[in-house]
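Ticket #4471: structure export looks truncated?
Reporter: QA, pipeline team
Priority: medium

Steps to reproduce: submit the single chain below to the structure queue and open the exported record.
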Amino acid sequence: MKENDIYLILKKPIITEKGTALKEKHNKVTFEINPKANKIDVKQAVEKLFRVKVLSVNVMNVVGKKKRLGRSLGRRSDWKKAIVTLKEGERIDFFEGI
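Actual output as written to the record:
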């Protein structure tokens, strides 16, 4: 991806119980990312957007679940997830005012 596409690489942060525990214990933050993005793209985007130092990036493809509504069967979309490990002392706060 190009350098000016950092807003296209990171779609949104994933805020769950598991993600919050990772953030508190291991200083890791989870994002939903563009399916075409790779580890290098994610690292550069996080460092540039949040002005933090990234140690490592783990990327995984999440397969969408099969869902059923009455008689009709459906399927959720597949998506890509990145777990970003930040340098000791660095932080990303999504809910600063709360």
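Status: closed, not a bug. The export was complete when the record was re-opened. Leaving a note from the reviewer for reference: The radius of gyration is 15 Å.
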